[in-house]
Amino acid sequence: MTSNGTPILQLDGVTKVFHQGDIEVRALRGLDLAVNQGEFVALWGPSGSGKTTALNLIGALDSPTEGSVKLEGRELSKLSRRELSAMRRDRIGFVFQAYNLIPVLTAYENAESVMALQGVPPKERRDRVMKLLADVGLGGMEHRRPHELSGGQQQRVAIARAIASNPAVVLADEPTANVDSATAEKLLDIMAKLNAEQGVTFVFSTHDPRVMRYAKRLVGLVDGAVDTDIEKAQGELDPEMVALGG
To answer: Pick the residue with more confidence: 229 or 153?
Structure first.
């Protein structure tokens, strides 16, 4: 929980409508979601269920058609463009399935980049980045550029970059989609450890059973809204692999 006792993240009645020519597509239909500090939450659902749209709204990459999105008690739709930019830089970490590393920068420079924008002193940046790279299993690889790293190693750099600025929440959009099973397990182990030991709040979008197994809370989405039919979800999923909730 945040210091005032409210959820760190809260969505109330969130609707998102896209227009494709004359066709209206409702990606989200009155989504309600609350996430407390230190949670490890997975938004689960098939393609088209609204998972990525929800993360984009939480990450201030898009705005809802209707409803409210609050991070640390601040209503995102009421922030100026400059305030939203600062919010994304300082309070939100992103892990994308395509890694989105800057190809000309080293692993160290990629992980350091947000802190450099924040104006963190060089020594503090170095100490934190070197520890983070060691924490994600990349000690000694700080000078390698993305093309010199495997997909799993690139995703580890992305995780280090995402948490380097001490964000309020890390948003991970299908983070295991482009890696093999063994690498996926290692990445999930890393994020679960960061959650358990450092209290980093994670919100995933996924349809990967491996992510569901690690999640402390699983929120099912169907057609842009929370699926409250828990019995149905339990019938579709292996109850030993996932913990249902939300």
So the answer is: 153
